[in-house]
TrEMBL record:
Domain Coenzyme Q-binding protein COQ10 START: 111-231
A Pfam short name: Polyketide_cyc
InterPro entries found in the cross-reference section: COQ10_START, ORF3, START-like_dom_sf
CDD domains, sorted: SRPBCC_8
Protein name, as recorded: SRPBCC family protein
């Protein structure tokens, strides 16, 4: 093959390669265009569904948007997974700044002591930290106002409670205020025998922070109440019952949040 022939063959090869490249780019362009159009339709369809959809629908939308924005498949999967986690946590813990779902806690315990002694010991609120594990401090501002501090997991929570109803040897009802979670409730005292008293505790627990909502989900607060009641019984049986003259309770009466009869 002479020089001219070789040059012609080379030029023809370059032209063929260039034409093949253009054809490949056109095919690729059409494939990409179809893919983008399909992805655009998917994003629009998922956006409509996600307005009322669950975590997985919103996760799929996040992944599709990531691909549509040119991110890699790995980044798209990561985005979808993170969205699914966030949406699931929202549903479990009441996302969007809303308050957690209220939980009713009902517990009772029988204490082998006279009703009056059990009631008097309960009204000594500032003694609670000495025998209850999670109550760290109680400051009684007045007959009906108390400030509490307790440990929730590894965090501390404070709240203020107001006694709205109190009748000696019968019941105490209160309402509370707190930044994160609150507990309203009633404790009543029932004489089963001269030396046997049933303590019935009914609580309305509204979790506020993440720890409280997590505990509420796993019903940890109900278990905590049961344990604290056992601590109360042990204290009455081992301390108050052995020296009842030292247990001086508050014998006043409260109705509608007002003291109507002092101790």
């Amino acid at each position: 093959m002479n020089f001219r022939t070789g040059l012609a063959v080379g030029a023809a090869g370059l032209l063929a390669a260039h034409a093949a490249g253009r054809a490949a780019r056109r095919i690729t362009g059409r494939v990409v265009a179809r893919y983008e159009a399909k992805l655009d339709r998917s994003v629009r369809r998922l956006t409509v569904r996600a307005e009322n959809g669950g975590p997985m629908v919103k996760a799929a939308l996040a992944g599709a948007r990531a691909l549509y924005d040119g991110k890699s498949a790995a980044r798209a999967v990561l985005s979808a997974g993170w969205t699914a986690l966030k949406e699931t946590l929202k549903r479990l813990f009441g996302g969007g700044g809303g308050r957690g779902k209220m939980t009713n806690i009902v517990e009772q315990i029988d204490v082998g002591a006279p009703c009056r002694l059990v009631y008097d010991q309960w009204t000594r609120f500032e003694d609670f930290p000495s025998f209850m594990k999670k109550v760290e401090s109680v400051v009684q501002e007045s007959d009906e106002k108390l400030n509490w501090q307790a440990k929730i997991f590894w965090s501390r929570r404070s709240w203020r409670s107001t006694i709205v109803e109190q009748v000696p040897d019968r019941h105490i009802a209160w309402r509370s205020q707190a930044a994160k979670g609150r507990v309203d409730g009633t404790v009543s005292f029932h004489e089963l025998a001269p030396d046997l008293t049933r303590v019935l505790l009914v609580l309305e627990y509204r979790p506020g922070g993440l720890f409280e909502r997590t505990g509420n989900l796993w019903r940890a607060q109900g278990r905590r109440v049961r344990l604290e009641l056992k601590h109360f019984r042990r204290h009455v049986m081992s301390r108050a019952l052995t020296a009842p003259e030292g247990v001086e309770g508050w014998r006043g009466e409260i109705h509608d949040g007002e003291v109507v009869r002092a101790s």
